[in-house]
Each structure stands twice: as C-alpha cells, then as structure tokens.
Design brief:
Layout lengths: L5 H14 L18 E3 H8 L9 E6 L5 H17 L2 E6 L3 H13 L4 E4 L8 H9 L4 E4 L10 E5 L1 H15 L6 E7 L5 H14 L5 E8 L4 H14 L5 E4 L2 H13 L7 E6 L2 H9 L4 E5 L1 H16 L7 E4 L1 E5 H9 L9 H13 L6
Parallel strand pairs: 1-12, 2-3, 2-4, 4-5, 5-6, 6-12, 7-8, 7-9, 9-10, 10-11
Antiparallel strand pairs: 11-13
Helix pairs in contact: 2-11, 3-11, 4-5, 6-7, 8-9, 10-13
Length: 364
C-alpha cells in the first residue's frame, strides 16, 4: 500500500491559509476527510503516467457547461494528458442532466474504453453509469461523484474545505457587524459537490451569532439567473453585507449586481473555483475571496487513472486534489514574491494570477 501523504499536505495548506495575513477571526481546523482511501495528486501522477502499457484509449468525457472556466479547465487537463499518450477524447459539455445521460449512452454505443464524468445530477446519472457497468466500461467521476452505479475512482478537491474557506472569508468580513446579513447564490441542490460546499460554509458561519442568512435560492448554475437573484437579494436587503456564490460565475454575477447598486467595497463576495475572472475581481478589490480548485490537475490525473485501469493496476477509490483560499493579501504577496503558494500548486496559481492581473481571461 502506498504511503498516504495528502492529509499532511492539506494540513500544511490549511495552516498556510488560516494563518497567513493575521486577522481577529477565530482559527478553525480543516475538517477531516470523510472518504478513503486517499492518495496525493502527486503520488497518483507518479503511479500512472510513467509506466503505462502504451495502449491508446478512446475516452468519453461528459462535463457540465463548458462556458464555465473551471469546467473548461477539466476538459483542458484531460485533453493535455491524453495528447501525451495518443488517446482520443470525445467531449460533451451540458448542465442538463438528461443531456449528460444521453451523452454517456452515446459513448457506450460508440464503444469507448473509459468514461470520465462530472455529473451535474448525482442521482440522475445513475442509470447511465449502470449501463456502462453492464457494458464493462469503467467509469471515473471527477469533481462531483455519482450517487450510485460502480465507479472505479473519484478525483476531486474537498468541497467541504472550500466551503470552510469561503465561510472564513465571510466571518472575517462580518467582524464588528451585528447583524451581518448574508445572501447565498446556490447552483443546483441535485449537485452533490455544491451541497457539500454549502454545508461547509453554513456550518462555519453558524458559529457566529451576529451572522444571519437572509436569503438563498437555486439558479441551476445559470449566470443570468444568478445576476437576477443577486440583484433581488440586494434590493430586498439594502443593508446586505455579504454574498456567497457556489461557483465563480455566480460570484461574478454578484459583483455585477453590487457594482450596479454602487456598493463595491461595501458588500463582500466569496465564490468557488479560482477562475481568471474571479481572481481579477479579487486583485481589483471587487471580490473578497475565491476558493481555488485545480481542474487541469484533476483532468490529468483522470487520464492517468484510466491508463492504470487499462493496465490492470489497482487504483484508489478517492484521489484528493488541492484546494487553496485566495484573497487580496495572499494574491498580492504571491505576485510580489514576498510569500509563496504551496509548492504543489505554485506554478498553476501564479499563472492564473498573472493572467487575471493582465486582464487576458479566456471566455472558455
């Protein structure tokens, strides 16, 4: 059995995130991982990428809407790793649960060698995964897991940890404000990853008697609906203090709504993914924080895992990918070289921050 190093790595990252830039907010320990076994992203990459049989795979990749920069990053990570090994990647991106199911079934009919899926509806995708099981096609889930069917592996960042990081940003913002009113821009409650993130956020802010959640609603991860919800929350609560969005495009919608109300700097914003647009808002002082995930790494590990499966090697049921909290103080220090991000994600987060600072964010 491999030595499991990632819990230690995350203790280090958690310590860095919670102690860099001292505040008067309470220090909160990162929650313990609830899934096992866990291996590090670095270990998994070393086990899968260097000693493969050389078999070229046909990969069916099913993702949510690719207009989300994070989701596009998952695709990019899969494609970049597949190019190294000569694999063919078939891609479908849709945030419609039925569309995802149909894509999986189409790839089964096309006799792909492996399916890599980020399910938008963990329950809705079960029948398609069971069809893949019957066809003896291995299934790897990334970011969000499914609620049933046999999955060979699940590769993801810890959503509860991301929720905690965003909760810390909110509780820090709310210091000295009583009551401190928070609105929540939800994605879809059928999305297991979003629910876990939201739980982590709510469990943390519930510890503060001055914090009051005044509104929350689903938007189906639709940016236009998120903008409408953010606007409505600000209108219904003129003294709203903070908006938390489940994903960065929702955070971007919150920033737009706050800007339209002339309240930039008066209402805090936290969201998840760490995409270029969110990082740009953080650097410009329009957004308080983003919880950065590393989709390229997740996509890369998924392809390496697919090759391990094809080679008959054992694979871990859960591979934990990095999550990093990014606010203005940390981002500025990292860019200036006066502090360094964790080594595992240093190159990636610095590249993203430089792109965000230059304003050269890709649309997809």
């Amino acid at each position: 059995m491999k030595k499991l190093r990632f819990p230690v790595m995350f203790a280090m990252i958690g310590s860095l995130v919670l102690t860099a830039c001292a505040t008067t907010a309470p220090v909160v320990e990162a929650p313990a991982a609830t899934t096992a076994p866990v291996v590090s992203a670095g270990e998994e990459a070393n086990s899968g990428g260097s000693a493969q049989s050389g078999k070229k795979l046909r990969i069916g990749l099913v993702l949510p809407d690719l207009s989300n920069l994070y989701i596009a990053g998952l695709r990019n990570g899969v494609q970049a790793e597949a190019e190294k090994t000569g694999d063919e990647v078939l891609v479908k991106g849709t945030s419609d649960a039925t569309g995802q199911t149909n894509a999986v079934l189409a790839y089964i009919a096309a006799k792909v060698d492996v399916l890599i899926i980020d399910p938008i509806d963990g329950k809705g995708i079960i029948s398609a995964i069971e069809a893949a099981n019957n066809a003896k096609i291995p299934v790897i889930t990334i970011q969000s897991d499914a609620a049933g069917g046999e999955r060979a592996a699940w590769i993801a960042g810890r959503e509860d940890l991301a929720g905690l990081y965003m909760g810390l940003a909110a509780s820090d913002w709310c210091l000295g404000i009583n009551p401190c009113k928070i609105g929540i821009i939800e994605g879809m409650k059928s999305d297991q990853s979003g629910v876990e993130e939201d739980k982590g956020f709510r469990e943390h802010v519930a510890k503060f008697p001055n914090i009051k959640i005044v509104g929350a609603s689903e938007t189906q991860y639709d940016a236009a609906k998120a903008l409408n919800l953010a606007t409505n929350l600000l209108t219904a609560n003129p003294d709203l203090n903070f908006l938390y969005a489940w994903w960065d495009p929702g955070g971007n919608a919150a920033v737009k709504a706050i800007e339209a109300k002339g309240k930039i700097g008066q209402v805090g914003v936290a969201s998840q993914n760490g995409d270029c647009i969110a990082l740009g808002h953080v650097l410009a002082g329009r957004q308080t924080q983003t919880a950065a995930f590393f989709p390229d790494a997740i996509g890369s590990i998924a392809v390496q895992t697919a090759h391990d499966i094809a080679d008959g090697k054992p694979v871990s049921k859960f591979v934990e990918a990095p999550v990093l909290s990014v606010d203005l103080a940390r981002a500025t220090a990292w860019l200036a070289g006066t502090a360094e991000p964790p080594a595992l994600v240093r190159a990636d987060i610095l590249r993203r921050l430089k792109e965000a600072k230059s304003g050269s964010c890709a649309v997809k």
